[in-house]
Amino acid sequence: MICRVVTFILLLGAPGLVCSAQAAKVTGPVKATWEALEHEPAEWLLDAKFGIYTHWGVYSVPAFATEWYAKRMYEQDSRVNKHHTQTYGDPKQFGYHKLVPLFKAERWNPAEWAKLMKATGARYAGMAVAHHDGFLLWDSAVNRWNAKNMGPKRDCYGQYVKALRAEGLKTIATFHHIRTFNWYLPGVGGLGGAIKPELAEQIRSEGWDLTDPEYGDLYWNELAGRRYEDFLSEWQAKVREVVDRYQPDILWFDGGSFRQGDSEQIVLNLLAYYHNRAVGWGKSVEVLNKLPVTGQFNFPREYGILTFEEGRDRLGRVERPWIDDMKISDRAWCYVEGQRYKSANEIIDGLADRVARGGGLLLNFSPKADGIVPDEQKQSMLAVGRWLQTNGEAIFATRPWKVAAEGDQTKLLGKKWTFVACDASDVRFTRSKDGRFLYAIVLGYPKAGRARIFTLGGQTVIADGGIRRITLLGHDGPLTWKRDAVALDVELPEDIDKDQPAYTLRIEPAGTLCMQ
Q1: For residues 224 and 507, what is the distance between their CA atoms, to the nearest angstrom?
Q2: Which end of the chain has the lower number of beta carbons within 10 A, N or C?
Q3: Mean local confidence (pLDDT), 62-69
Q4: Cα(513)–Cα(516) distance, rounded to whole angstroms?
Q5: In this structure, are residues 453 and 444 in contact, taking their beta carbons and an 8 Å threshold?
Q6: Which helix (H) or strand (E) is 252 found in, with range?
């Protein structure tokens, strides 16, 4: 029997392809060229689907508005500038470096964080080890502005990595500091750049700490006598230090100048170094390749796992493996007072959608400066973990089916993908890697307890022998179902919890599952 699916189903959203068959596995030594760096995606990461990291640092101390606090506080008349002046004093007298001793992490327990990550069902976890402000969360010999030397007086990333590995989790380190040069300066864009001469002169004349050479190794700007080429050299040294000391399984880089001018060869050298080091470690590592607001991926599209910030500019179909990173809050990536947090339902619906389309989710949570995770965040993450305990079979180590989704995709799409409006009319499809099962994840409790799935009606060939049986994950025994030319109707058990975020039907094919 020839597998087929009619055109209107294809429009519901096709899954992403796995990877180019020509890509070679990295076995080392790897040359520092883009062609040599191309490789097959790490199989364990394709299976992992779900990871969690965090924005946590000096910017968590003021807990106001944004993780870009360090930049915004120097912008005259901005909300952050006014807040900083009222709370700490004029930034000319109380600069960002004076917040560093206030970041103490006095209640932080890395083992508790790691156990929380394990309970969420995440397969890998980590932290933003250096944000735009340039403060480092590891024990660094490269730069003195680090968490072991100042503030917490602890090797935060190192301790967290040890705790995560004790829980059996892979690790990720994310770097946001390639844009730090000139980033602090007011009037300069978020990716750095030149400052206007008249503003530069005003800052110098007023004696801001940004221009003080004593703090130049934190603020890294031309007004403090620093050079961009020296910054790039130290940038690479910092990343290499993390690679050597902590052997992270994944590296992620925020947007910045990775392929412009002098930076490209430095970046190539660094990435080749990481892959070659991994060969010595005897493990498979991966690099996430972000699409920033510039509209150009950090690295060539053929390299690494494509990454989209909250789905920004991502199509429903992506031809390579990909991951969305997403914050748990409605405002900042770090902890700020007064923000709200995504429910487990929204996170689960988004995870199911992404996995069905060939992607994954890297969720960001937001601890307080002292290391405490707010209860609202914790409860959402734990609820995700409970759902995955029952339904993880349809998420982890799965692959896209020939149809990704049923339902109105337009309600998900804006500037970014959102999942607050999903209901029982939305169904997502995945399959086991070996083709033994097809999964239909219904994103809400269906009316009258009957799931009606149009994609799986008679117009779609599911398997060469049809359907053998259908079960509900978390419930014993087969379900009652019928199938006609229009839809597959499945009756859910009467005794199930009707308030679950989603329900997973395991469909056992009679014969070979149709993939096309």
Answers
A1: 64
A2: C
A3: 98
A4: 9
A5: no
A6: strand 250-253
Bond prior to 29 in cis (omega within 30° of 0)? yes
Is residue 436 within 8 Å of residue 481, measured between CB atoms? no
- Give the closest residue to 25 by CA, choosing from 36, 35, 40: 40
**CA diameter of the chain:** 81
State mean pLDDT over 105-123.
99
What the chain holds in terms of domains, given with CATH numbers, is 7-17+398-509 (2.60.40.1180)
Is the preceding peptide bond at 292 cis, omega within 30 degrees of 0?
A: no
Pairing label, strands 170-175, 124-130: parallel
Dihedral over alpha carbons 478, 484, 487, 490 (to 10 degrees): -20
Contact status, residue 90 vs residue 206, Cβ threshold 8 Å: no
Question: Tokens representing 238?
Answer: 């910092």
Other CB atoms within a 10 A radius of the CB of residue 418 amount to 18
Rounded CA-CA distance 430/507 in Å is 10
Distance CA 134, CA 31 (A): 29
How far apart CA 416 and CA 246 sit, in angstroms, is 33
Share of the chain above pLDDT 70, in %: 95
Tell me the CB-side half-sphere exposure of residue 470, using CA atoms within 13 A.
22
Angle, in degrees to the nearest 10, between helices 375-391 and 110-120 = 40
The letter for the amino acid at 307 is: T
Residues 6+ apart with CB under 8 A from 346: 419, 420
Best CA proximity match to 383, nearest among 342, 425, 428:
342
- Token pair, residue 1, equals 């029997």
What are 105's two structure tokens? 């992490």
E strands, 322-371, are 322-327, 361-365
Which stretch of DSSP H or E encloses residue 409?
Answer: none
Angle between helices 228-246 and 156-166 (to 10 degrees): 30
Cβ(157)–Cβ(246) below 8 Å:
yes
249: part of which helix (H) or strand (E)?
A: none
Cβ neighbours around 194 below 10 Å, total: 12
CA neighbours within 13 Å on the CB side: how many for 141?
Answer: 4
Three-state DSSP state, 151? coil
Query: 88 Cβ partners below 8 Å, 6+ apart?
Result: 62, 94, 98, 99
Residue 490 β-bridge partners: 451, 481
**What confidence tier does 253 reach under pLDDT thresholds 50, 70, 90?**
very high
Which distant-in-sequence residues (6+ apart) come within 8 Å of 351 by Cβ?
49, 50, 361, 384, 395
Q: Distances in Å between the alpha carbon of 423 and those of 365, 405, 408, 443?
A: 25, 13, 10, 5
Residue 86: Cβ within 10 Å count: 8
The pLDDT value recorded for residue 11 is 32
Amino acid at 449: G
Q: Which residue's entry shows tokens 């004029």?
A: 90
pLDDT at 236: 98
CB 465 within 8 Å of CB 513: no
* Whole-number average pLDDT of the chain: 94
